[in-house]
Structure formats: C-alpha cells, structure tokens
Prior knowledge:
Layout: H1 3-31, H2 36-58, H3 61-84, H4 105-132
Helix pairs in contact: 1-2, 1-4, 2-3, 3-4
Transmembrane segments: 38-57, 69-89, 101-118
Keywords: Membrane, Transmembrane, Transmembrane helix
Protein name: Integral membrane protein
Amino acid sequence: MNPVARIALIVAYAVLGLAATGRSVVQITTKFSEAPLAYSVSAVSAVLYVMIAVALWKRWRSLAVTGTVIELAGVLIVGTLGYVESSWWPDETVWTGYGSAYGWVPLALPIVALTLLLRGRRARATADDAVVAGG
C-alpha cells in the first residue's frame, strides 16, 4: 500500500476512534438506559476504529481487513435498520443513517480502506508470482 494512503487511513481511523470513544463514553455514562442498543453500537464502533488503526499501524493486514469488513457490515446493517425499524434506535449511533452525522465517512472509509488493502494484497501476490517464475 502507498505509504501516504496508509498514514491517511491510520489518521482517519484514529480520529474516528477518538470521536466514537468520546461519544460512547458520554452516552453510556450519562443516559445508557435511554437507548442501550444504540449506545452499545457506538462503543463497538469505537473499539473497531481503534483496532483497525492499530492494525494498519502495525501492518497487521489480515486484522485490518477483517475489522474493516465487520465495520462495513455494521454500517450497512445499522444504517438500514435505522430506516426499516427506527424505534430500535431512539438515539443516534456513529453508524445511524450510514454515518450521516459524520459526513458519511463511516460508510465511505471502509470501502476506501478495503480497496487499498486488497489492491495491495493483489500487487504483492503478482510480484511474488513473478519472482517464483524467475522474472
């Protein structure tokens, strides 16, 4: 992966992790009983964002890909359920409305991250094949 793209992803995930952590800590400590599912989802998103940032930093590609796939699934599921069954979400989460409160970054970021991570994996596999073939 391009070093600039890698650093940009690390920064983006770290910032989202910080924002989601702050949001979930405030929600859980001050009004958890009002929307326990929504606030728990915010906490899960915070953990995922931090985990992905660390995985990208440490170059743990498999963990970064796994976390990003889970993140994208969460954004899509929570975003869709927010429209289908809005009573389940009496308050917003990071992923409500597909991340609309965060400028849809929670929806776009995992798509960009997966594209870069998987493109890097494909490029490495092609280079490895060339070495094995004697090229």
